[in-house]
Amino acid sequence: MAALVRRGERGSAVAEFVMVSGLVVFLFMAVLQLGLVLHIRNTLISCASEGARLGARADAEPGMGAVRARELITASLADDYAEHVTVGTGLVGGVQVVEVRVRAPFPVLGLIGPDGQLDISGRAFLERQ
Description:
By secondary structure, the protein is α+β, with helices and mostly antiparallel strands. It has helices at 2-9, 12-55, 62-76, and strands at 84-92, 95-104, 118-125. A hairpin with a 2-residue loop joins strand 1 and strand 2. Helix 2 runs antiparallel to helix 3 (62-76). It starts with a helix and ends with a strand. Residues 11-53 form the TadE-like domain. This is Pilus biosynthesis protein TadE.
């Protein structure tokens, strides 16, 4: 009886390894992709905020903030992420602010993804009020 059990289990380690390793690779790639999405999102937030801070300075124009945000995004990420950068001013709580908006592709597979899915904004209080 023991011989029958051993013969039936023979080769099952290979099948188990293939199934488990496929699952582990899939989970690793999913976590890696999530990390990439979060990295891109945080980088865009940082670049938009830095552009808004520059555009809100007393000795600068708001348009300079969009240029600075584009430069930072191009230096940090691919050029595709810096295509849609806009700047505007508005009121928040009765105080004028400069807002830099970035619309960028959402990285679905690596850096490839549909355009305009990430909508990021950075704000800074206008110094000359």
